[in-house]
Amino acid sequence: MGNAYAMVMTEFSAPLQYMEFDKPQPKGGEALIRVSACGICGSDVHVWKGQDSRSRLPMILGHEGVGIVESLGGAQKIDIMGRPVKEGDLVVWNRGVSCKACYFCLVKRKCYLCSSRWTYGFSKSIHDYPYLNGAYASHILLTPETDIILVSPAEGLSDDIDPVLLASACCAGTSVACAFEQADVRPGDNVVIQGPGPLGIYSVIFARESGARNIVVVGGTPQRLAMCKEAGATAIIDRNATTEEERVAMVRALCDGRGAGHVFEMTGAAEAIPEGLRYAAVDGSYVSAGIAVDVGDVPVNWFRDVVRKNIKIQGVWVGDAKNTWQALEVYQKHKHILGQMITHRIPLTDATAALQMMESKEAIKAVLVP
After folding, report:
1. Which of 271, 320, 311, 303 is nearest to 287 (CA)?
2. Fold of 175-315
3. Closest-CA residue to 220 (of 187, 244, 191, 254)
4. Nearest residue to 68 (alpha-carbon basis) of 153, 134, 189, 182
5. Taking the domains of the chain in order of start, what are their residue ranges?
6. What's the angle, vertex CA 110, arms to CA 107 and CA 115, rounded to 5?
7. Could you report the per-residue pLDDT of 226-280, keeping only the tens digit for each?
8. Terminal alpha carbon distance of the chain
């Protein structure tokens, strides 16, 4: 079968190491994917810095993969829409694999909460099945249980389909789809988004799709704020040029004098939460999808900002295959905007430099290309 290669994390905060592997022959429903692109997520930076308890060294990062089916093992394989998957097709896959047999999978119908769920690029070392289990690699082996989404059949592939631009839908878009599914934003609602990164940019698009009337983005990076404005934000607030009291007053003024019906935390920063709760209107909601690692305790005036205002607080943990499909649909409709999010295309062998770019926010979104 020849060789595959990957950039392997052997220690935290250290350069990733180039390693070669025997390319596996898929069997029993497995799928061997030739990776076309893999986005670098803020969560990858957390793992690289040793901040995620799921990490198992040595490991291959990468949960935002897009690729071509190189070979299949066993019987006919179908995607989540019931479409046949064959060699040469362009696909993405659900980053998480759940048991599909527990309370959360079968009763709650929220497979992303499955206690047995594991995630490509997060949960396993190179010594754990399926071994090639992260997308910072030339190839990845998908288990039979992995949900696959067909992007384009082999015969439909053309230069108009850029796999690099699809990577953001596999994580940022997925998490935002899950957040908006639970928030139930309705036409005419006011929405505030904290954080203008990839999660925030997708949130602007989803807010537009939901019919929100006012969409306010609060953040501190001019390039990212400008992209949110282009994506459809009705107002942006630069937190580096304002005080907290000014921002609270601006949000209230921009949202009919009441504040936002829905506030979305998309920053990953604990200090955003107490301020964000103040943005919410009476009987509003606060949805936190940006916090991906333990950031410790958060001081909140619970009576003033939650109880007295009848606030609903919703945590969001990742998303499922349905949410990835929704994100891909939104991407196809708004790719002229969302495609601009990809600011850096970087060779896979330069993965360490790419992680550093994401950590420093030099890149809005960096994508590795094998």
Report:
1. 311
2. Rossmann fold (3.40.50)
3. 244
4. 153
5. 3-172+319-369, 175-315
6. 90
7. 999 999 999 999 999 999 999 999 999 999 999 999 999 999 999 999 999 999 9
8. 18
